[in-house]
Fold these 4 entries.
Entry 1:
Amino acid sequence: MIADTTDTLLARKLKDTMRRDGPIAVSSYMAACLTDSEHGYYTRQRPIGAAGDFITAPEISQVFGELLGLWSAVVWRAMGAPGAINLVEIGPGRGTLMSDALRAGRRVPGFADALWVHLVDTSEPMMAEQRRLLAALPRVRWHASPAALPKGPTIVLANELLDALPVTQVVGRNGRWHVRQVGLDAAERFTFVTGPECAEPPLAHRPATVHDGDVLEIATGARDMLEALVARTGGGPLAILAIDYGHETTAFGDTLQGVSRHAYCSPFEAPGEVDLTTQVDFQQIATIAGDLGLAIDGPLIQAELLGRLGIMERASRLMSANPARAAAIEAGVARLMAPNGMGSRFKAIGLRSRGLPPLPGFGV
C-alpha cells in the first residue's frame, strides 16, 4: 500500500529516523503514531465525539457504563468483598464510562467504600476532561501505564482499548515468515516493506500454509499489557472485561487502518493526527491470557453480554423516570444492540484469576 502523506511534525520525525536507520516495524510505527510523547495522536488530540474521529459506547448511552459499574460490584462480591479494591479503566476517554459506572455501583452496599479508582492514560487533553468529570470523587488516581498500578485485588475495564494496542505484522515470502515494516518509497512516501526473515509466529492457532503476501498480526501490545496487569496483582484476584471489535478466530489479513472524522483512511495519512486501529484477534487474547494463568470467559457478542446484564430492563426504568428523554434513550440502546452493527461487530471477553467463578454475563 502506498499513500500520500500529510507532512505532519510526526511524519517528518519518522522520515528522519527511517533515512538514518532504515524501515521500522509496524508495531513501532503504530506506537509512534498513537503515543509519541511530542506528536502522538492520543498525546495531543481530543478524538471522541461528534466533532472528533469516533464515538464510543459510553458516549452513546449512559446505560452502558451503568451496567459495567454493576458488573464490577458483582465481581467485587465474588472476590469476597475485600475492604479495598482497585477499579481500573485503561484508555478511559473522557471519563464518561467511569462516571456512569461509579454512579450505578454506589447502589451496592459497601462497594463505594472499598473502591480505589485508577485511570491509565497518557493523553493530557483527555485527562483534563476526566479530572473535570471526576473531580468531586475521592480516591481517584491517574497512571501512565498498567505497570504503575498498585498491587491488590483488581477489576479492569477496557472498552475499545485492545484495537489501539500495537501489533507486530509478519508477511509470507517463499514459504517463510518475514517481519513487515514501514519504510519510504522513492518519492519518500510511507509504504509497507518486507523486512528480515523471522521465526514462526508464536501463535497457538494460525493457518497452516504460508503463501506469498499472507499477513498475520501478532498481539504483542496486548501481551505486554496483560503481563503487566498480572504482575501488579501480586497473585491476588484479578478480573478483566474487554469489549472491542474484531474476530473470534485467528486468520490471515492486514487490518491496520486509520480513522479520521468517523471514516476509515490509509494508516499513512497524517501521522499523529489520525487514529490507528486493528481488528482484535480474540483467539490470541484468550491464548495469551491462558499462558499467564488466567481463565477465559467468552468471547460473546456485545448484544448478548449487555442483554444478559439487563440492558433492556435498565433502559425501561430509565425511560420511565425520564419521559422527555425516552426516545433518545431507546435510540442509544438500539445502537448498542444493533444485530448488524455494534451489537454483533463488538465482542466481549472476560479474563479472571482461576479461583474466581465465571464473570457476570458469561456464565451459562
Entry 2:
Amino acid sequence: MAPLILVRGLRFQYEDGTVALNGVDFRLEEGETVALLGANGSGKTTFALHLNGLLSGKGTVEICGLPVNPKNLVEVRRKIGLVFQDSESQLFMPTVLEDVAFGPLNHGLSPHQAVERAIAALEQVGMLAAAGKAPYHLSAGEKKRVAIAGILAVKPDILVLDEPTTFLDPPGQRALAQLLSALPQAKILITHDMPFARATCSRAAFFRHGVIVEEGSVEQLARRYEWDFVAPRPT
C-alpha cells in the first residue's frame, strides 16, 4: 500500500539565506502517529508547512498519492489538516460552531451540511456544549479541542499538530493525549514534550540542521540524543 505521505529530497531556503531543509526524506503510513523531535530551528515546522503547500521548496511531496502543487492544493488541504501551536490563530469567527463550520463551507458544502459536520466534529472532541460560545471565552485546552474539531469537520486523512501541548496544564495534556489516541487518522506531532510523545506516538523522527538524522521509537531517540523535555506548565 502506498504511504499517506511520501517526501523525497525536500530542500528549502528562506529569503534571508537561511537553509531550513537540506534534503528531507520521510514517509507516513496509514494508522501511524509520528513525533517530529529536534531543537528549535531544526526544520520541523518548515517541513510541516510544505505538507499542505503553505511553503514550496525543491524535491517532491506527495499526500495520499497527490503531488503537492498548485493544481492539487484544494484536494491536498482536504486530506491533511494542520493544527497550529497557537490555537487562537485558527479561531476567528463569532461562535465556536461558526468557526468549526468554516472549513466545510470553504470546501463547498452547503450551510446545512457544514453545520452538520461541525456539530459531529464538536461532539467527537467533547465540545458540543460550547457551540454557541465565543472562542475567546474558552480555556487553552478547550481552544485546542475546537481547533482540532475545525480540522476534523473537513474529514482529513492526516492530522499535523505543531506543539499541541503548549499552554496546556497537565490534566489538559492528558486529555489531549487521550483524544488524539482515539482518533483514527494518521498523525504527525511536532513536540518537545517527551511524556506526551511517549503516550501518543508509534515512532519518531529526529531533525537536526534541516535533515532527519534518525528514525526509531520515541524512547530510542530520547536516549540517543538525550532529549527528554517536559512541556512547561502555564503560569
Entry 3:
Amino acid sequence: MNTAFLVVSFMNLAFVLGLLLNLGGLLTWVERKQGAVMANRIGANRAYIPVPVGRDPNGAGGFKWSKRFTLMGLFHAITDGIKMLTKENFTPPFVDTFVYNLAVWFSAVPVLVTFAVVPFGGPFQPGVMMSEVLTMVGMTGAAASVGGFFGDGVYHMQLANLNVGLLFIFAIGSTGIFSAALAGWSSGNKFSLLGALRSSSQMISYEVFMGISVLGLLVVYGTVDFNEMAQLQQQTWFGVIPKWGVLLQPHMFFVFMTALMAENKRVPFDMPEAESELVAGYFTEYTSMKMGLFMMAEFLEIAVIAGIMTTMFFGAYHIPGVVAATDAMHWAMHPELTPVNAIFGAEVPHALVVVLRVGAFLFKLIFFCWLQILIRWTLPKFRYDQVMKLGWKYMLPLSIVNVIATAAFMYVLGGM
C-alpha cells in the first residue's frame, strides 16, 4: 500500500464524514424550515447572535445590542447540539445498562458505514487534477512535485471499492434493527418494548421488499458493484437518452424508495415512535446525547438513502455529455476516440470534470433529501395495519412479478 493511496483514502474519508455529519445537522433545520414554509409559517427563527449597533441611548457609552443575526434560523442546529451536550445524562436504575448503552451505537455507526461504498465522484487522477489547478495559479514547481507524488494513478472517489457494494449495504443496513430492538428491550419500559416490536416487524418486512424490488435492476445491470452500476448508466439510447435506472425500472424506483423510507421509520412510517401512542417509542428512556444520537441517525439516514437512490437510479455522479479519460467502459465502447476529458465533445481540464461530477452528485443527493422531507410533511401517518398491508399485499407481489418479467424480457432481448 503506497503513500499516495493512503492520502487519497484520507481525503475521501474527510469528504464523506464532513458531508454526512454537516448535512445531518443541517437537515434538522431543513426539516423545521421546510415544514414551516409548507404550512405557511415562519419556522425556526429564535436562536440568534446579537450584533452591537449604535450607542447606548442611556449615555453609558457602551454599544446597544439591538440587531439579531438569525441566519434564517440556522443557529438552531447549533443550539440543539449544545442543549443535548449539556443535558443530564440520566440512566434509569431499572435498565440493562450494557445493552442500553450498546443500542445507541447500533443506531449511528451502521448508517455511516453504509455510505462507504457509494461513489460520489467517479474514478479520477489526483496527480493530473492538482497539477492543473496549481499550474493555473502559477505554482508550477508545486504542480511538478504533486504530479510526481501521485503520478498517473487512477483512484476512486469512494471509501471502499467493493465488488459486492449493494450486498454490503443490505448487510450493514440490516444491523440497524438491533438498535431499536435492544433499546426497547433493555429500557424496561412497556412503551419502549412496544416500539421495539413494531420497529422489528416493520424493518424486517420492508427489507424483504427492498431486496426483491431491486432484483429486476440487477438483472439489467448484471452486477452488484456500485462503480459498475454508475459506469453503465453513462450509456445512452440513440446517443441522447441516458440509461439511468429510473428509466429502466421506473416503477421499482418508487417501490425501492418507499421501502427505504419505511426502513428509516419516518412519517408516514413512524410506527416505532408514534408519539401519540408510545410517548417516543423505543428510545423513550434515553436522554442527553444518547437521545441525540438516535435522532441524528434518522437525519443521517436521509442523506444515505439519497446517496443510494442517486447511485442506483439517477446516474450517480454522471452528467449527460460529460466524460473523463478514466471512464473505462465509455472508451471501451468508443475505441475510435482518444481518451480525453470532454464536455459535449470539447476537451476540457480533468479538474473541471471532477468538480462537475462531484457537484452533480451533491445536487442529486440534496434533491432526494428535499424530496424525503417533502413527503414527510405531505402524507399523513399510516396505521400499523396499513403499513403491513402496503408491504405484503402490494409491494411484495409487484416486486416478484417485476423480477420475472424483467428476466424474461432480458432473455428475449439478449442483454442491456
Entry 4:
Amino acid sequence: MTADRLDQPRALRRSLRPHYDPEAFGRLSERIARFLGTARFLVYMTVFVAVWVTWNVAAPAPLKFDPYPFIFLTLMLSLQASYAAPLILLAQNRQDDRDRIQYEQDREAADRNQAEIEYLTREIAGLRLALSEVATRDYLRSELGRLLDELKDQQERQREHR
C-alpha cells in the first residue's frame, strides 16, 4: 500500500451510513416546526381525529380498523408527538444560533458606531478649540470697524491741531 500523497486529492471513502445535509435537514425541521405551530395544523389534526373516531364508531363492523379504545390512533398520535418534540427543539436551537449571531453582529455594529461617535466628538471639540483661536468674520469686521473709527478720530484731531 502506498502512502497518501499531499499533492493528490484523497479518494472518497465509501460508508454504510447514509449521507445527509445537516443544513437542509435543519431547514426542513424548521418548516415542519413552523407548520406544527399553526392553527391550520390544529384544525387538520382535529378533523383527522374526528374522522378517525367517527369512522371507527359509526362504520359497519367489518370496516372498522381501530375499535373503541382506539389503540392505533393513540399509537399514531404518540409517534407524531415523539417526532414533533425533537423537530421543534432543533428548530429552536437553530433560531437561538441565529439570534446569537445577530446579537454579536448588532453588538459589533454598536461598538463601531460608539467608536465613530467618540471620534467625531473629539473632532468637533478640536474644531471648536481651533475656531476659538481663529478670528471669525464678525470679529474681523468689528476690529476693522473699531480701527476705522480710531483712524477717523485721529484724522479729526490732526485737523483740529492745524
